[in-house]
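Protein in question kept in full:
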Amino acid sequence: MFSRLRSDIQCILDRDPAARSRWEVLTLYPGLHAVVLHRLAHWCWGHGLKWFGRFVSQVSRWLTGIEIHPGAIVGERVFFDHAMGVVVGETAEIGDGCTIYQGVTLGGTSLYKGAKRHPTLGRNVVVSAGAKVLGGFVVGDGAKIGSNAVVIKPVPAGATAVGIPARIIPSKTGESADLASPAAPKFSAYGITLEDDPLSQAMKGLIDNASSQEHQIALLWKAIEALSAQPGKKDCVPGDAARDECFEAERLTQLVGK
């Protein structure tokens, strides 16, 4: 029990630069208190003490602002960062190493008792502030859920989900969206960076394509001008032909935030 508690404290020290000491984490971090109380509530739930399990989870809710149903499964090194207003449903499963921020809901869309109604998070998933993950599907290992996203379908391992409803951005490496290289894992606080915004990625692609086309058109006009300047050939280049490039690709790229 104590080794698991030490592991929980260390994961908070690793992921929160504001955490200054183990004593501070142990005494002042509601995310840690919620996890510890949930383990007691879950043990009671699994041993037939349903009412007492719910009572412990309700006390935890009052003390921490984090509501975890005693039937939910929470892995090791799970960090509820700030986490006020988090709701975790009965059949939800949270894998090892996950990080969950404030206002997150791991909810269900079915009313059938006994069914798998809530999501399953794989290992090292980041669920950002205000995100809603609704349904009995799987969010793969290393996936990231952007702030205020509404996820209603499975998310592949390493992918990023952003928007309402969430759009899925595949992992660049095919393994984890948080891997800068196979040997250098990088934690992404709040689960999303500028590179993960599909709209800015699309705009960047359109800007690059338009810039390339203008460059090719300018080259063609210059080639036609050179041919028409040869002896015995009539000038066929219009006076307003665009011989020089004027497309401000760099400025437009800055505007879309890339």
About this structure: Residues 200-255 form one domain. The chain has two domains: 2-191, 200-255.
